[in-house]
Amino acid sequence: MNSHSLLKAFALSILLAVSAAPAFAAPCGTGSFEAWLEDFKKEAVAKGISPAAIAAGLNGVALDKSVVARDHSQKVFSQSFEEFSGRMVPPRLARGSNMLKQYGSVLGRIEQTYGVPGEVLVAIWGLETDFGANNGKFPTMRSLATLAFDCRRSDMFKAELMDALRIVERGDLAPQEMRGAWAGEIGQTQFMPSSWIKFAVDFDGNGRRDLLKSAPDVLASTANFLASYGWQRGKDWEPGSANFAVLQQWNKSEVYAKTVGYFASQLARAP
After folding, report:
1. Sign of the torsion angle spanned by Cα atoms 110, 112, 114, 117
2. How far is CA 159 from the centre of its chain?
3. Which residues are registered as beta bridge partners of 139?
4. Interval 182-194 mean pLDDT
5. Angle at CA 107, nearest 5°, toward 102 and 113?
6. For residues 224 and 192, is the Cβ–Cβ distance under 8 A?
7. How much is the pLDDT for 270?
8. In the chain, N or C: fewer CB atoms in 10 Å?
9. DSSP string computed for the chain
10. Is pLDDT at 134 greater than 80 in this prediction?
């Protein structure tokens, strides 16, 4: 069988398989990205998001193949606690200690409100983005739309893209400000849009929830996340404790959660 006949036979087998399957709307990854995006815009309107927010957020958004490549090549987190904490904590300890002092009064008010100690918040802040120095440069709308179109975790990222549009709609950020990690995390402690919608707070009182530029909003929103998952005021965060389980809601990796706890304990002991 020549290559043309093989191709025809393959096409016919696909056609038979498709015609035997029940008819659904075009699934993720089929057709053009542009056609998929137009369908998504209609779905967003049906979910009550304003056409203005949809146009601002999605017009001109293109597929980013580098994001798909990163998503498909993710490796399982394999560093030991000793390796990861040894690499991450010592270079950030002095700066973390300074941040604890610099934002002492804000962190005190946050602990009164949410029950989460400043050391834990500063540890997360340092590990996530070096205290806001490395928030990421990927355009959030493009990353989320790409991952929603791709079939690996389509439903999850469609929901995140909807929430990113809601962030725009309520005036927290303009779409062009929304840059972060390749998988759509934004802000100085790397919130997915769904977490931003649920937990972001305006702690500096300027009328906007700004997790990109406002340290009080960043720290209070992170505390709100942890409190919402059951952080126990005044209790420790040793592995096995209720508060350690809350740190694993922040990041499922036990090594990461242990590193947050270790960093926080080091900060608590710092002079």
Report:
1. positive
2. 12
3. 179
4. 97
5. 165
6. no
7. 80
8. C
9. --HHHHHHHHHHHHHHHHHHSPP-S--TT-S-HHHHHHHHHHHHHHTT--HHHHHHHHTT----HHHHHHHHT-------HHHHHHHHSHHHHHHHHHHHHHTHHHHHHHHHHH---HHHHHHHHHHHHTTTT----EEHHHHHHHHHHSSSSHHHHHHHHHHHHHHHHTTS--GGG-EE-TTS-BTTTTB-HHHHHHH----S-SSS--TTT-HHHHHHHHHHHHHHTT--TT----TTSHHHHHHHHH-S-HHHHHHHHHHHHHHHH--
10. yes
pLDDT of res. 191: 98
In terms of Cα–Cα distance, which of 65, 37, 75 is closest to 182?
65
Check: pTM over 0.90? Answer yes or no.
Answer: no
- In this structure, what are the phi and psi dihedrals at residue 20, rounded to the nearest 5 degrees? -80, -20
> 136, 180, 161, 146: which is closest to 66 by C-alpha?
146
- Residues labelled as active-site residues: 128
Query: pLDDT by residue (tens digit) across 67-116?
Result: 999 998 877 678 899 999 999 999 999 999 999 999 999 999 999 999 99
271 contact partners, CB below 8 Å, separation of at least 6: none
What is the distance in angstroms between the CA of the first residue and the CA of the last residue of the chain?
Answer: 78
Enumerate residues 6+ apart whose C-beta is below 8 A from 107. Answer: 100, 117, 118, 121, 122, 219
Least Cα distance to 264 among 227, 221, 235 occurs for: 235
Which residues have CB under 8 Å from 161's CB, separation 6+?
A: 40, 141, 144, 145, 148, 193
